[in-house]
Amino acid sequence: MLNTENLIGTVLSDRYEVLDKIGTGGMATVYKAHDKVLDRDVAIKILRENFEGNSEIVENFIREARSSASLVHPNVVSVYDVCTYGEINYMVMELVDGITLKKYIKKNPRLPWQEACDYAIQIAQGIQAAHERNIIHRDIKPQNIIMAPGGVLKVTDFGIAKAMESDTSMAGGTATGSVHYISPEQARGGFTDFRSDIYSLGICLYEMLAGRVPFDGDSPVSVALMHIEEEPVNVKCVNIDVPADLAYVTMKAMSRDPAKRYQNMNELLEDLRAVLADEDLPSREAEKPVIASGKSPVTDNEAEHDVREKKPVGREDLSNRGRNNTRVKNKKKKSAKKKREDRNSVILALSTVAVIVLVAAGILLMLINPFSNSSVPNLAGLSLEEAAETAKRAGYRINDEIEYSLSDNVAENLVISQLPEAGTEADRSEPISLVISLGASNGGIPVPDVVNMDIDEAGQLIEAQTLLYKIVLEPSSKIAENLVIRQIPAPGTHLNSGDYVTLHMSTGADTDNFQRGVVTVPSIIGMYRDNAESTLGMYNLLIGTVTRKASNNPAGTIIMQSPAAGATVNENTTVTIVISSGKEDSTLASEYEDVVPPAEPSGVNTAEQTYTEPDVTVPNNPAAEPAAEPAAEEVPPGPGSTLYTVKIPDAANDTVMVEIIQDGVIVHNQLHQKTEGAVTIELQGAGSSSVQAYIDGAKVSDKTVTF
Predict the structure, then answer these.
(1) DSSP secondary-structure letter at 260?
(2) Kind of pairing, strands 403-405 and 433-437?
(3) Main-chain phi, psi angles of 392, to 5 degrees
(4) Which regions of 37-156 does DSSP assign to beta strands (E)?
(5) Which of 625, 548, 612 is nearest to 583 (CA)?
(6) Under DSSP, is residue 331 helix (H, G, I), strand (E, B) or coil?
(7) Could you report the per-residue pLDDT of 489-520, keeping only the tens digit for each?
(8) Which of 26, 332, 388, 488 has its CA 20 to 30 A from that of 367?
(9) If you ran DSSP here, which 8-state letter would residue 383 be given?
(10) 131: pLDDT strictly greater than 50
């Protein structure tokens, strides 16, 4: 019998030539192979040798292949064939040149919410295609999502999926699936349906936004119990930049009670698409109470009055029918009808006059004072919907920009505070700004009171508590420039280490000078993106293109900026930044990853496609073709060194940031003028080195140089 762990060079079924091993999972080994009949590369998934004798596992493996073969969707890895070769069972699948979503998240923790939302939509579309064929995946996790070139995500490994018509519960009551992404009903070993996949997708979305899974523990059993017994921390508490609607979608998908989750994948897709389009969530629209339409109480009373008035007339006619002739009866009817018509005419005339008077009075009041002052209603403790309705009844409206804050005392989704404050006199044209509770963080660090402090002093005090902060600029005629007007969360609120405090800083009463002219670019190297945005905002500068790359700097910190610190630029200029993704992870597979393709997709980082490959010269390497002559005054390199030249592309900006990395260490990071044409530096080393060059954060060269 063939060794399933080493099939390289083997030709299966006289058709599939095995080229390389891609990865190994718990039940199967995956190889790259070439289909000699159709002349294309494919992936071969082979059931591991120790499972071949288990008839139930073999049947499930074959069932997986057959059910997966019916799925044809851009977001699902296609299954082409299922075969038996001797005692080996294997399936032939689409070969996706990419990395797993798990590995991508590890390199890029806390994805931008728009990117995470787009990925969740793609995954949901693939799962929906399976659900439409009554197939439940039961093991949705980032390790089973492959990122193809161009950022296209494909769901793979329906290894424990079963056709619903054959079985809808876990065999033998055993929970199957990855413990960090398993639904509570799977953890109990109970009944599972489409909503189990929705829960697991919610966990994946949470991880993309938060940079971590909601539940983690010392053992698989402890994690499974957390899914069953505990409520996850709201993702917005972990990452304050997540929009409230997206946080709502994420937490609803992760509801412990299946009845409170999205009931099908289409409902989840509609909400995710609404988040990206900045539209109202369809699920929340469906939850709003419906107010039945009907007659007003006044109209009903009037109708009842008419009935009471008409009723005696009818009774009198019936009682006197034998004594009155037809002429008398008709005369009485005409008389009664005439009275009612006269009365209705009078009422109509009076009503018309009253309406005209009221409209005229309203117009006159608006002309005199279109937005009169009034007492602001108290909205504290209300939900956003209740607050909006209460404000509307008082003639006010709610500010479209809602702030969210952790709170120890106010329940989630209720109003903590408002501006203008309740009871104050305020112009009705001024919207009411609200702060909505995210609930308690269950942290142990109280937020210091920094109101009226200088912004630098306030920042130091917050960082001393191992908290982070960001700054929101706000003009104020009462608070001096650079002082904190207010803070969110309120002083004393308990947070976890690394949580954010938002500081509203005064720019003074006159902001004209702040909003125009030229400024000097500050240094943001070493900062995290949130603090960098706040710092640049103080100079009326903006974050521009953002790329990530491996470095020895802490993950998430800025390692490059362009324009550089000290440069003089116009206000509203964008600053290009490069963020460290941490050290490059050379491990091809982790204990969680079932399939890890060897190459990163070309479409993952679009910034790397900005420039074409430039000419790179290593003068003392005879195999290299010179791209530029070194300047006459340059000293030839000594032993153990070499010159490395990077050409600045014609399409580059006038000023570019050139970074050169040798064996993971930054050896050059400076601004250069486009007119220089090329940048040449001397590298030191022995043997050979891996060298990468970046221009404005985009990789333009990746070479091995020889000394």
Answers:
(1) G
(2) parallel
(3) -65, -40
(4) 40-47, 79-85, 88-94, 99-100, 135-136, 145-148, 152-155
(5) 548
(6) helix
(7) 999 999 888 788 888 888 887 544 444 467 88
(8) 388
(9) B
(10) yes
Terminal alpha carbon distance of the chain: 49
The C-alpha atoms of residue 178 and residue 201 are separated, in whole angstroms, by 12
Encode 4-19 in three state secondary structure.
CCCCCCCEECCCEEEE
Distance (Å) of CA 621 to CA 195, 644, 687, 688? 60, 10, 12, 11
Strand pairing partners for 641? 684
Q: Count CB-CB contacts under 10 A for residue 368.
A: 8
Share of the chain above pLDDT 70, in %: 73
**Residue 326 pLDDT more than 50?**
no
Could you report the per-residue pLDDT of 245-294, keeping only the tens digit for each?
Answer: 999 999 999 999 999 999 999 999 999 999 998 889 999 876 655 444 44
Give residue 529's identity as a one-letter amino acid code. Answer: R
User: Which residues contact residue 501 at a Cβ distance below 8 angstroms, ignoring those fewer than 6 apart?
Assistant: 447, 450, 462, 467, 468, 469, 470, 487, 488, 489, 495
Closest CA relative to residue 223, chosen from 193, 181, 254, 253: 181
Q: What are phi and psi of 289, to 5 degrees?
A: -65, 140
Tokens of 12: 């299966």
Residues marked as catalytic: 139
Structure tokens at 232: 């996850």
The three-class DSSP label of residue 609 is: helix
What residue type is assigned to position 414 of the chain? L
Give DSSP secondary structure letters for 149-197: TTTEEEE---TT-EETTT--B-GGG---S-TTT--HHHHTT-B--HHHH
Q: How far is CA 520 from the centre of its chain?
A: 33
Output the CA angle 436-437-441, nearest 5 degrees.
Answer: 150
What pLDDT does residue 639 have? Answer: 64
User: DSSP 3-state assignment of 409?
Assistant: coil
Q: How many CA atoms lie within 13 A of 384 on its CB side?
A: 19
Give dist(CA 353, CA 360) in Å, integer. 11
Residues 564 and 62: beta-carbon distance below 8 Å: no
What's the rounded Cα separation, in Å, for the pair 268 and 363? Answer: 47
Residue 522 tokens, joined: 């500050």
Sign of CA dihedral 9, 12, 14, 18: negative
